[in-house]
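ok new one. same drill as before - structure tokens go in, u give me an amino acid for every spot. 88 of them this time. try not to just spam alanines like last time pls lmao
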């Protein structure tokens, strides 16, 4: 789980590979960039310093970068690593 640096928004990454964005104080998900059962478990999720982007890494070494904005923009990343990455 990680918090947005400026807004009351949080990212959660699951063992089932899902990623969800939540707004503090609300019970409904803002958006689901990655649905459950599609990818390996999420190992890291982080917002950028300014909060306009976030990154997701998973157990298979996949790294994807997403733009924060309208819920419709949560459908796909703007960057996916062409090779597997190792996080330290």
């Amino acid at each position: 789980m990680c918090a947005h640096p400026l807004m009351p928004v949080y990212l959660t990454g699951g063992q089932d590979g899902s990623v969800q964005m939540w707004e503090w104080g609300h019970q409904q998900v803002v958006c689901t960039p990655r649905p459950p059962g599609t990818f390996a478990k999420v190992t890291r999720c982080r917002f950028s310093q300014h909060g306009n982007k976030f990154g997701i890494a998973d157990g298979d070494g996949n790294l994807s970068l997403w733009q924060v904005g309208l819920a419709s923009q949560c459908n796909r990343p703007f960057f996916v690593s062409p090779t597997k990455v190792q996080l330290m």
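The chain has a mean pLDDT of 89. and btw The domain at 2-82 is CATH 2.40.10 (Thrombin, subunit H).
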